[in-house]
Amino acid sequence: MNGQLFLLPPQGSAYAGRVDVLFWTMTAATGAVAGAIFVLLILFCSRYRRRSGPERVMSATAVGRSRNRPLEITWITLPLLVFLAFFFWAAWLYDHQQTPPAGAAEIYVVARQWMWKLEHPDGRREIDELHLPRGQPVRLVMTSQDVIHSFYVPELRIKQDVLPGRFTVLWFTPARSGVYHLYCAEYCGTSHSRMHGRIVVMEPQDYARWLGGGGNGGTLAQQGAAKLRTLGCSGCHSPGATIRAPSLDNLYGRTIPLADGSFVTVDEHYLRDSILLPSKQIAAGYADNMPSFAGQVSEQDLLELVEYVKSRAGSNTP
């Protein structure tokens, strides 16, 4: 189905078709209900209009006998079930969109007034433009340097708020090669209308050539390793450190116990908080002696540090 023929932008992702089916099914159902109400309204106005002559007043007994309880229950229950079905359908789609598949390529996005900064794991950086291969699932890890923004690509049917002080995640699979418009869908200041860009979806072989054609200063993980040494973190998180701190090997993705008896999964959010708010969630068995790096590291630094820790998953090297 070509969404452009139905007054919608072209479908640029695998997710777009599912959203369009839900949208048009809901439109048809609500349109049918509205049409039925309109027809019944005209019918009742015509059939039960006040006529000339003495008014006939029905007695309470007559009103009671005129009720049709099965009909009343049906026209209340049936629409309720139909719209509950739409709710669960939409909830299923939402849940699917919140669970990226294993092996999805990760792209880091930093929003700021008024631009999008995007970075590939190999260190390749782009401004207001993102090149992607067709058919490859992509996971975006996004944050903002200033105010709330919103990453919105109509052709892909995706939209996600980008918040300062935390990471938000969005994923999709580009289904067609082409160029798609990227907008900020949250008013973010005087030049909000200028905060736009484009998503360039390429054939895999063309993307591989593009990716290999640009130089960079090392991968994000390599930059994170250098930043870790600069900040002095390796002095505590290495095996021979004087101050005992959790090892970074195989840390990402694990569920670890905390000092308060609860458990947490080590993901991007936990790593970010551990760097900026180390006293918020203290790992069980360790002292609360890690300093906060709030104000000392930028959003770019945080992305590099997080990517370095993620690269240590499956590693046993210091």
In short:
The protein is of the alpha+beta class and 318 residues long. The protein has eight helices and twelve strands. Strand 2 and strand 3 form a beta hairpin.
Structure, described:
By secondary structure, the chain is an alpha+beta fold. The chain is built from 8 helices and 12 strands. It has 3 domains: 1-42 and 70-99; 105-212, Cupredoxins -  blue copper proteins (Immunoglobulin-like, Sandwich); 220-311, Cytochrome c-like domain (Cytochrome Bc1 Complex, Chain D, domain 2, Orthogonal Bundle), CATH 1.10.760. A hairpin with a 2-residue loop joins strand 1 (105-112) and strand 2.
Strand content: 15-25%
The whole-number mean of residue pLDDT values reads 83
Q: What order do the helices and strands follow?
A: HHHEEEEEEEEEEHHHEEHH
CATH homologous superfamily caption of the largest domain = Cupredoxins -  blue copper proteins
Calculate the terminal CA-CA distance, rounded to whole Å.
53 Å
Bin the helical content: 25-40%
Tally the beta strands.
12
- Total number of helices: 8
Second CATH tier, the architecture of the largest domain: Sandwich
